[in-house]
Amino acid sequence: MALQKRGLSIGDISARTGLAPSAIRYYEEEGLVHPDRTPAGQRRFERADIRRLSFVLIAQELGFPLAQIRDELAHLPPGKAPTKADWTRISRRFGKALDARIAQMQSLRDRLDGCIGCGCLSLKTCTLYNAEDRAARKGAGPRYLLGDVPDGDD
Among 60, 117, 63, 94, which residue's Cα sits nearest to residue 145? Predict the structure, then answer.
């Protein structure tokens, strides 16, 4: 996989990232990478695109939407490898979001057994956690398990 004078081919990028060429083309359509084109129309990627696409893959596996990933990549310097400081900034922002998700999942885990043991999942029959179906005012579904807090009168 030689670095050509005009950059890396899509096959080179695919081999380095583990992404299928179709996925790489999709990410290009989504504005996550911006390869140059040869006179014959072949894509040529920068070495920095290996890191960018690897970041996209990891961020998606962590559940981040493409729009948020695109926003983060837009802050990186175009045409060159991001610096450690660039990645640190992204890591801090993503870390905060992950910490919030982890806290939400831990809270859900801690409260899940009580609610499942009850069986009602905030239906009208729950007099322990949801008297008179007050949770319904907050929306559909198991509101308290989803993170809503009972109002003072709940």
Answer: 117
Q: pLDDT tens string for the chain (154 positions)? A: 444 457 999 999 999 999 999 999 999 999 999 999 999 999 999 998 998 999 999 999 999 999 999 999 988 887 777 888 998 999 999 999 999 999 988 877 776 666 555 555 555 556 556 666 777 788 887 777 777 777 765 4
Confirm whether pTM is higher than 0.70.
no
CATH number of 1-82, picked from 1.10.1660.10, 2.60.120.560, 3.40.50.1000, 3.60.40.10: 1.10.1660.10
Residues facing 7 on adjacent strands: 4
Q: Residue 28: CB partners within 8 Å, gap ≥ 6?
A: 34, 35, 43
Q: Which of 122, 127, 116 lies closest to 142, judged by CA? A: 122
31 contacts 70 by C-beta, under 8 angstroms: yes
The length of the chain, given as a count of residues: 154
CA distance 98 to 79: 29
